[in-house]
Amino acid sequence: MWEQVANLLAQYGVWGLVLLAFAESSFFPLAPDFLLVPLSLAQPQRALWFAVLSVLASVAGAYCGYLLGRTLGQPLLRRMANPLTLRRMEEAMDRYGAWAVLLAALVPLPFKLFTISSGCLAMNVPRFLLAAFIGRGVRFTAEAAIIMAMGAQAISFLSRDFLWLSLGLAVAIVALYLLYLLVKRRRRSRGRKAHRPALPRPERAGTVTPGDTSP
Q1: Long-range pairs, 121-128, Cβ under 8 A, ≥24
Q2: How far is the CA of 61 from the CAs of 20, 120, 129, 197, in angstroms?
Q3: Which among 2, 55, 98, 188 could disulfide-bond with 131, CB atoms 3.0 to 4.6 Å apart, if both were Cys?
Q4: How many whole angstroms separate alpha carbon 106 and alpha carbon 102?
């Protein structure tokens, strides 16, 4: 049934891509790459535009999934995944928060489960949307850039190596963020040292200060 719906969406071209990207982030099981890749191959000069539309629609759908989680909560999740998967996902969400959302948006994971779980856990909305935007933005623009650079050969590359590329990009994003935190912490420590008042130097024994007339 889902394949029939996807084939129907494919007939509508870019509008089908937008609808698929929106639905996949909240309730639909098929990723927008299913339409993004063939559309980009057919019109490589518009591949980045297709990627941008996919990112915006996917983030909007992610917020819809967040709202579903806030209103329907755990009963909805139990109908979408088995208890073991839900337990592991909730552990990841509790431990990593928005980073788990970013990773799920970047690699081939069931993104809708993470968006709904974010609503169940009442995650900070701006942080949630930023994570979804970065993850989906990196994923879809990377696919478009690969297609523009490799043409038809991109299909074999994406099917064989894109998972490892996505994981590498996720590690790079985390490393850059940690580096940013380290630099920020060092700047704060330097600023505190610069504004720290200088302590008065102790006077040496036997020295006479100016104006001191005492014997």
Answers
A1: 121/69, 121/90, 121/93, 121/94, 122/70, 123/66, 123/93, 123/97, 123/98, 124/98, 125/63, 125/66, 127/97, 127/98, 128/62, 128/66, 128/98, 128/101
A2: 9, 16, 10, 53
A3: 98
A4: 6
Q: How far apart are CA 153 and CA 133, in angstroms?
A: 28
Pull the structure tokens for residue 207: 């020295």
Whole-prediction pTM? 0.75
User: Residue for token digits 């967040």?
Assistant: 66
Contact partners, residue 19, CB within 8 Å, separation at least 6: 9, 12, 57
Half-sphere exposure of 93 (CA within 13 A, CB side): 22
Read off φ and ψ for residue 81, nearest 5 degrees.
-155, 160
The contacts of residue 40 (CB under 8 Å, 6+ apart) are 46, 47, 50, 51, 143, 144, 147, 148
- The enclosing H or E element of 208 equals none
Provide the residue-wise pLDDT of the chain in tens; the chain has 215 residues: 556 766 777 788 899 999 999 999 988 878 888 889 889 988 999 999 999 999 999 999 999 999 998 888 777 777 777 788 778 877 878 777 888 898 889 887 788 888 988 888 888 999 999 999 999 999 999 999 999 988 888 887 777 777 787 778 778 877 877 887 788 888 887 777 666 655 555 555 555 555 554 44
Distance separating alpha carbons of residues 80 and 26, to the nearest angstrom: 11
